[in-house]
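Amino acid chain
________________
===
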Amino acid sequence: MSFFSVVSALPASNGPLYMQFGRFLRAAITEGRLTAREPLPAERDLAGHYGISRITVRKALAELERDGLVVRRRGMGTFVADASVAAPSSPYPFHEDLVAAGRQTHNAWTERDPGTVNGDEAMAFGVPFGTRVVRFKRIRYQDALAVAVEQSTILGDYLPDTVTLDDSLYKALEATGTAPARALHRLRAIPLPEDKAHQLGVDAGDPGLFLERRGFLKDGRTIEVTRGWYRGDASDLIIDATVPKA
């Protein structure tokens, strides 16, 4: 069965065209109509079939790649990602890892700002402009040491204004029945920018870690986007991986 017989017409929806096309492909992947390792047609073929530009196709595929739903291989094309690539074993973030390590942790919430998505957020969530979100800023502490600054954006429909935040954003989402089923984490080493270094009590340019996390519901929709800056001298990354059978 060909790709175009499974994923036929592009339905009308709101938002920029690349976001519409991205949501269209995302649904085909998360609903199982496209399977792991299945190749996608070339960009020019996708553009020609759906009557859109190659730039639109490329931007949509870049978003899906960033969310771990497709893999692009130079000279080979674009493929639906393996479940093991797209779905890490646990969605739970830094705070729970520290608790598991036996450290005392707490948050200082510095901002809770309801509003509507900006351009970057609309692209990250795959939603039209005007969609309601809630933005949070917090400083995370390990014992008495500030170790992380985090900025989180949650789709507003899943976190009513009446929900009270204590220490964990994910626990608040659990209380509404909308905690992420999986999360994609991207981590890289950086020199800490001046404003984040000041909040963490270190010098600008000191070594740090930058993490971007996206939380997904079971149906594949993005519910959370978080960006975090971590002190390099107070962060350990431990990976427990299962070795595949030969």
Q: What stands out?
A: The CA atoms of residues 212 and 227 lie 5 Å apart. Residues 84-89 have pLDDT under 50 and may be disordered. The radius of gyration is 20 Å.
